[in-house]
What does this fold into?
Amino acid sequence: MRERELRRRCRHLLRELDIQPPLDVADLCSRLGTLRGRPIRLVAHPIPVPGPFGVWIASPEVDYILYQAETSRSHQNHIILHELGHMLADHRSDEQDDPLLGELYPDLAPDAVRRALRRTCYDTEQEWEAEIVATIILEWASVADPLAAPVPQDPVARRLSKEFTDRVGWL
It folds into this structure.
């Protein structure tokens, strides 16, 4: 998929999810899970180094994103957004057993492990696409977050605020 198409898809989805600055990655995951019809669970875990920083495990009932617990919050957010990038780009996992995941998470069903997306380098098309999605979202947040006015909590006030103020979000 080309970068322009990824940008268009991200803007469309994030407008649909009504994501506004400042960026809240957990809120983004919650809204995306609702849209996809199954929750996205974020799990901080001390993933062995060297190795992947994050893992997306798709099960029939829930999507799990495991991310490196032993790094900065900004890096954790990037890892989570990268794994969301795999979801947003409609990637599928390799149909191979993953010994690392099987060793780390012996309670996971083998089919869940097989559906896990785990990559350790950015040399494939899917890794590039996932990284572009994370970058698109973080670029927007780096520009939009400092410009954002507080969002009213009341739904009616929020709707009116969106109608009568300059748009900073996903144009």
Remarks:
- Confidence is low (pLDDT under 50) at residues 117-122.
- Residues 3-164 form one domain.
- The chain has one domain: 3-164.
- The CA atoms of residues 17 and 32 lie 7 Å apart.
